[in-house]
């Protein structure tokens, strides 16, 4: 507000001051440059979000029935519980798998670290449909994974690895892992080597140096990566739909089914609003510790 | 000393296992696409080009591929200038509203894609843009712009603003000063943004499931339906081609970065 009121309060002659005129012109130019982009996002995203919000309270007048349904009807709250459960498992798995890889990229000699980084980024650039297909091939009853497990005698009969929760989790972690590794790597890269050397020269064992110096300093990367993976997983649709065999119903599927099968916008919008509120709350809380740009940077 | 070596061995083994997990699904698609069998068995019983033939001979797949390519090119062509203009304004303006404007422009990255899809579907159902090419392009422009904006803002940070001011003080108008002085220097970030926009549109599936259809069905929607209903091995050949295309584009970015 302050910058807007300065011209009129500072001095009565401000209106004819050429620098103010220039500033106004500058602002008009900037508005002009921003308006096409803003118009597209407003029309296609902000307006529909507002409409979804209103719709979630509407059914021949104001109502809370769409929200009540989420908490009373088994299918709804079970779906939300499953969505959170899968998102938590996926986030933990991605962190456990991603941390050593990010650590390796920062520690390895440059030539090797570039190779590992490339191997992390390559899947990032591959369509999620392509990867869903690949996982269907790998995880099916007579697939490579089952053949290998039976070959080394870990199991006698093929395990059901796909068309269930497990298949969904395996494929989802695969898709979201780069979103964990990249923020971790960018944080770890900035940890000065001198600090680690100082730690060990003062007599700390390599493990202590890692645990007491390196790990705490990589926390902002852990938070950024975990937030991104968790939030992306909350809204995941394509992978659970293809890998879950119709039984792993996540929140996004409730939205899609209510619209495409039943044209029930009330239910769809209430689920959307709850999902969106979760996402915004998480971003809001986390952005107090880690800037939002850092979280979205690798998306 | 022995315990250190052991931790090292375990660590290397874990990293290698994760890398195999990351890369194996991408590699396995290639031999699958040359299989001569209708079944998804691996390794394939024999090799042939029949799934490439069935892709290139199918009118439906070809029309979907055409739709997707037209869509991706149009999206990059439109989203890039809009994104560059917005990034330039955000970078050069210190008004208090800029923070919020930036947040709105990045909203497509924050809102879960299923909700974006539902919202766009609703607006298009009202305006008759469902299953039309302009509708598809507009939605993908919205989804692609944040990538252009973030990439170009990063490029502008590394650029010395005073150079453009010098050009303007010497009598060039702002647009010409930007085109001849600023743009050539931030070109790599613009190219990166444009390629991201292209790939985003080529890859986009969720919104396309809701709003594409009829003769304007994208290849991703067709692939999704094929994967869900009955697995057609043609998917393997399309997957290989898509992956190859992504690699070519990533190489393009890397080369354009190296040159500057």
Question: What would you say this structure looks like, in words?
Answer:
Chain B: It is found in: Cell inner membrane; Cell membrane. Chain B: Residues 65-253 form the ABC transmembrane type-1 domain. Chain B: Its main location: membrane. Chain B: The chain crosses the membrane at residues 9-34, 59-91, 103-125, 137-157, 177-199, 235-255. The complex is a heterodimer of chains A (299) and B (260). With 299 residues, chain A is mainly α. Chain A folds into 2 domains: 2-55, no CATH class; 75-296, MetI-like fold (Orthogonal Bundle), CATH 1.10.3720.10. Chain A has 15 helices and no strands. Chain A has helices spanning 2-10, 18-55, 65-72, 74-107, 110-124, 128-139, 144-151, 165-189, 193-201, 206-217, 219-234, 238-243, 251-260, 265-286, 292-296. The longest helix of chain A has 38 residues, at 18-55. Chain B is mostly helical and 260 residues long. Chain B has one domain: Orthogonal Bundle (MetI-like fold). Chain B is built from 11 helices and no strands. Chain B has helices at residues 2-33, 50-56, 59-92, 98-110, 113-127, 133-157, 161-169, 174-203, 206-211, 219-229, 234-259. The longest helix of chain B has 34 residues, at 59-92. Chain B is globular, with a radius of gyration of 23 Å. Chain B starts with a helix and ends with a helix. Classes of the chains: A mainly alpha (299), B mainly alpha (260).
Question: Which SSEs are present, and which pair or pack?
Answer:
The complex is a heterodimer of chains A (299) and B (260).
Chain A: H1 2-10, H2 18-55, H3 65-72, H4 74-107, H5 110-124, H6 128-139, H7 144-151, H8 165-189, H9 193-201, H10 206-217, H11 219-234, H12 238-243, H13 251-260, H14 265-286, H15 292-296
Helix pairs in contact in A: 3-4, 3-14, 4-5, 4-8, 4-11, 5-8, 6-8, 8-11, 9-10, 11-14, 13-14
Chain B: H1 2-33, H2 50-56, H3 59-92, H4 98-110, H5 113-127, H6 133-157, H7 161-169, H8 174-203, H9 206-211, H10 219-229, H11 234-259
Helix pairs in contact in B: 1-11, 2-11, 3-6, 3-8, 4-6, 6-8, 7-8, 8-11
